[in-house]
Inverse folding.
């Protein structure tokens, strides 16, 4: 069979799936994408808030995109537009002392010259380590226990990349990679607010506190990629991220991908010899395919679409052990006018605003999360996209989009009766930071991790489709022996954030999967 | 159920202990899992011959007993074991092995299709964890009944007659591997025509409460049939003649192996008849499909060795004096009148081309001697009496 007449069905139209589908279509495969929702993009995409307002769905900032993907798909030409780039991070505390981070510069909140230098040094060393991490991202990870020459080569080049960083970085890598961000930051500086702000990047979307092991990897992950070649620099996309998803959709269609919306996949079918035959939708429609690529998380893929009974127990066990605890919620507010945050000037309102005053604060807040409870003072990443994009709200009005961390997926008392209480609590907390904000709220919603699971079909509402920890990383991602985007079923591949290199709006997993599929199926 | 004050003792006594301790005139005990059971009672050779000529009774209580029941029981066992479990009909027993993800044998055992949607697995090792891991997504309930259920092996040519004399109707009509449930003093008692001896024989599973009275009654009724208690030493000889493998002796239990390569796949244990690759899925299938394509590293054989010195633990060589394998179990078989052994062979041994020569050490008057004896591969069972299969079973 030539690839022209090999039919590929892709499950989900998240950004990774669309990237993968487009690469494959460009390579000559016939590709159909099936998406449950009525729009593409997955956890990134424009969302309606009431009749008159629009907000970014889950993801609201592009921080570590894979620029090679954007170029290859010509996303700019297909309509991708940034409404703001190179955002600064403005970190709040209760006293209204803001700290401003811009690349490797930091200012505000009584920061001393010495501390500024400490931050520069820290940043330099971390970016270097992130660079090493990133060098592993664009490649498929080697398989474990393989004697394949390609795998040996990838492993060797990983080692070589590590050596090439130089002796100091090599020792940094060995010293830092498996420890926690708490100890690392304490080694560099005493400025608590600065440390709290940086540690926030390590724990955002992850089930960990600053003292949890592995929190250095997640910090470095956040520093990989980045628009305009600037590590970890944050950008906002116009139309409430809509211009990004629209451009992906256009690029896919242009390449010949057929996108089926409102088409939820129920099961994947294959023969006793594990050859893919096609898939079946929830509405009963069946679709023949020779190759299936899943853009949803590994747990849902194998537990729901394949079914544990059809897999060997060892595989089921491993997949069910992938840790998938989501703990980032999304808060959307429509405001009748611009809010005023204590310590933030009006011209800084459009920046990335973080509330995470210290590492001790984060750790204590995480304690609640660990036991299925919620602190009444939650860490947040706040943006007001309407500052840069007037189309999101009626004139003079604004929308606020905040990721609220440490909101547990499993709330002890259950979500049913608690959601409005937690929503009110978040608004009250913001009102403390921006006095009077509460009175401006005309629309509001809170998407808990459970809501995110429901809405996007991702187990646990987990940011990375599987926590990003050392034991679920590289060749261990999503599970040992299943790395390299493949699965025990031949011609069933995985391309979502659950695969290497993980989550966030990057597109790298989708691209790597496409490369692997082209290699294996051509 | 845990026995009360169990922690005060290092081992449990089986429900038969009151009688077995009287019968164990050698006072020769050994540990079998959590229990103490007789290694030998009076004379190993006579215990062995009781199983071949009259009836020998073994206390199998320590055998680990798992119960799998629920709506998905068949589907579950079919995915757990390598063989086609749909072929083990209701009230039938099957020998089975199960594998890890690498296709290496974890353990072997007998599976009892006890009732509709209910299977029991009897094995040497506890398998609760493997069974539980395998249960994700299946509607089954899994528990272990080892301490709640007493078990006896009643093995030998007169065994049917004894059970018949005890009132178990139509016991002689059970075909090999059949199960029948009886009521005994108001308790259910399950008799299967199975055992480790390769002979006519039965296994009896009963609740602890009736165990002792069953034992006493059986020995009373069995006296004229020359019933004898027999220990584990005799059992080991019987099972070798019968062609049955012993986990931990003839192969490493995959989970306990320390060195890679120390484990064996079913193919490497001569158990390919227990592997059905046409099943859609079972644990270890992917690895076994791969092995089938690539070829196995080891070959398991039964050997008939010249001379009469048991080749226990022997190295095996080919005609070029290259090491080609090891003996895993060996004995001089009184019933087959042959010097028999099981062995695991490997490269450079070539089937049909290479000789197999055993290096045997034996002691005579406290002196160690070494002989090199040629061996031939045996494909038929070492000992295979017609009475093993005859239905109705012979009655005396
Ligand atoms: C609250 C929150 C905020 C975040 N904010 C940011 C951020 O600001 N910046 C950032 O970089 N990252 C952010 N992330 C992470 C980022 O959104 C994800 O890592 C990323 O979206 C993963 O992309 P994906 O393409 O792999 O899968 P997804 O975006 O999860 O897409 C999966 C798609 O599959 C569809 N689907 C599921 N099941 C089925 C089925 N059975 N049949 C058909 N379709 C199905 C879903 O509807 C969805 O469209 C955030 C995550 C969360 C939870």
């Amino acid at each position: 069979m030539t690839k022209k007449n090999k039919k590929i069905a892709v499950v989900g139209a998240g950004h990774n799936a669309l990237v993968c589908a487009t690469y494959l279509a460009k390579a000559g495969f016939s590709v159909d994408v099936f998406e449950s929702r009525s729009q593409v993009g997955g956890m990134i995409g424009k969302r309606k808030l009431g009749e008159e307002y629009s907000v970014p769905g889950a993801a609201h900032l592009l921080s570590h995109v894979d620029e090679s993907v954007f170029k290859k798909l010509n996303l700019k030409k297909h309509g991708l537009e940034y409404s703001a780039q190179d955002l600064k991070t403005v970190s709040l505390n209760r006293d209204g002392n803001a700290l401003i981070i811009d690349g490797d510069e930091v200012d505000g909140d009584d920061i001393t010259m010495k501390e500024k230098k400490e931050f520069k040094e820290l940043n330099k060393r971390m970016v270097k380590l992130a660079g090493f991490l990133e060098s592993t991202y664009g490649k498929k990870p080697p398989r474990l226990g393989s004697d394949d020459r390609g795998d040996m080569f990838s492993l060797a080049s990983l080692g070589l990349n590590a050596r090439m960083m130089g002796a100091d970085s090599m020792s940094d890598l060995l010293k830092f990679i498996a420890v926690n961000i708490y100890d690392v930051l304490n080694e560099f500086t005493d400025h608590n607010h600065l440390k709290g702000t940086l540690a926030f990047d390590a724990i955002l979307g992850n089930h960990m506190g600053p003292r949890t092991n592995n929190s250095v990897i997640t910090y470095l992950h956040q520093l990989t990629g980045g628009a305009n070649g600037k590590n970890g620099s944050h950008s906002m996309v116009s139309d409430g991220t809509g211009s990004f998803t629209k451009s992906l959709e256009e690029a896919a269609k242009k390449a010949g991908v057929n996108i089926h919306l409102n088409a939820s996949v129920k099961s994947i079918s294959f023969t006793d010899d594990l050859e893919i035959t096609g898939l079946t939708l929830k509405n009963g429609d069946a679709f023949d395919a020779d190759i299936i690529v899943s853009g949803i998380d590994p747990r849902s893929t194998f537990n729901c679409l394949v079914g544990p009974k059809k897999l060997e127990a060892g595989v089921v066990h491993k997949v069910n052990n992938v840790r998938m605890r989501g703990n980032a919620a999304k808060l959307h507010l429509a405001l009748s006018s611009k809010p005023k945050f204590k310590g933030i000037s009006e011209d800084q309102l459009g920046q990335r605003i973080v509330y995470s005053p210290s590492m001790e604060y984060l750790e204590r807040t995480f304690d609640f999360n660990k036991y299925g409870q919620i602190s009444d003072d939650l860490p947040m990443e706040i943006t007001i996209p309407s500052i840069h994009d007037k189309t999101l709200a009626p004139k003079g009005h604004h929308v606020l989009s905040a990721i609220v961390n440490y909101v547990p997926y499993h709330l002890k008392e259950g979500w049913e009766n608690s959601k409005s209480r937690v929503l009110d609590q978040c608004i009250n907390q913001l009102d403390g930071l921006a006095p009077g904000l509460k009175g401006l709220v005309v629309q509001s919603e809170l998407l808990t991790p459970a809501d995110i699971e429901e809405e996007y079909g991702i187990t646990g509402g987990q940011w990375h489709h599987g926590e990003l920890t050392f034991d679920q990383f590289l060749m261990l991602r999503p599970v040992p022996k299943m790395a390299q985007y493949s699965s025990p079923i031949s011609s069933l591949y995985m391309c979502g954030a659950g695969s290497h290199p993980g989550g966030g709006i990057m597109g790298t997993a989708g691209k790597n999967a496409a490369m692997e599929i082209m290699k294996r199926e051509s | 159920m845990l026995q009360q004050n169990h922690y005060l003792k290092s081992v449990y006594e089986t429900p038969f202990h009151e009688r077995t301790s009287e019968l164990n005139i050698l006072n020769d005990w050994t540990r079998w899992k959590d229990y103490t059971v007789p290694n030998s009672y009076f004379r190993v050779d006579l215990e062995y011959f009781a199983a071949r000529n009259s009836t020998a009774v073994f206390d199998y209580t320590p055998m680990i007993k798992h119960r799998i029941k629920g709506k998905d029981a068949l589907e579950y066992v079919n995915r757990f074991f390598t063989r086609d479990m749909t072929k083990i009909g209701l009230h039938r027993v099957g020998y089975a092995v199960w594998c890890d993800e690498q296709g290496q044998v974890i353990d072997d055992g007998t599976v009892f299709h006890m009732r509709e949607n209910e299977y029991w697995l009897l094995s040497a090792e506890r398998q609760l964890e493997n069974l539980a891991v395998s249960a994700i997504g299946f509607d089954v309930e899994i528990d272990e009944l080892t301490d709640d259920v007493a078990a006896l092996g009643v093995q030998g040519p007169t065994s049917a007659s004894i059970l018949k004399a005890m009132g178990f109707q139509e016991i002689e009509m059970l075909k090999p591997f059949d199960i029948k449930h009886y009521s005994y003093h108001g308790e259910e008692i399950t008799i299967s025509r199975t055992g480790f001896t390769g002979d006519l024989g039965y296994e009896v599973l009963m609740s602890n409460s009736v165990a002792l009275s069953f034992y006493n009654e059986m020995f009373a009724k069995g006296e004229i049939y020359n019933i004898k208690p027999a220990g584990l030493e005799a059992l080991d000889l019987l099972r070798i003649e019968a062609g049955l493998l012993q986990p931990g002796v003839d192969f490493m239990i995959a989970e306990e192996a320390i060195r890679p390569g120390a484990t064996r796949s079913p193919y490497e244990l001569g158990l390919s008849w227990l592997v059905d690759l046409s099943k859609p899925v079972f644990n270890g299938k992917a690895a076994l499909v791969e092995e089938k394509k690539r070829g196995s590293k080891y070959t398991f054989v039964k050997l008939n060795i010249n001379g009469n010195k048991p080749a226990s633990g022997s190295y095996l060589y080919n005609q070029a004096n290259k090491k080609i394998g090891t003996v895993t179990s060996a004995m001089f078989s009184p019933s087959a009148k042959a010097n028999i052994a099981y062995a695991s062979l490997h490269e450079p041994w070539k089937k049909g081309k290479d000789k197999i020569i055993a290096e045997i050490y034996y002691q005579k008057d406290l002196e160690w001697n070494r002989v090199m004896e040629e061996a031939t591969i045996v494909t038929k069972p070492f000992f295979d009496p017609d009475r093993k299969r005859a239905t109705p079973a012979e009655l005396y």
In short: Chain A touches chain B at residues 272, 274, 303, 307-317, 320, 488 (CB under 8 Å). Chain A has a mean pLDDT of 92.
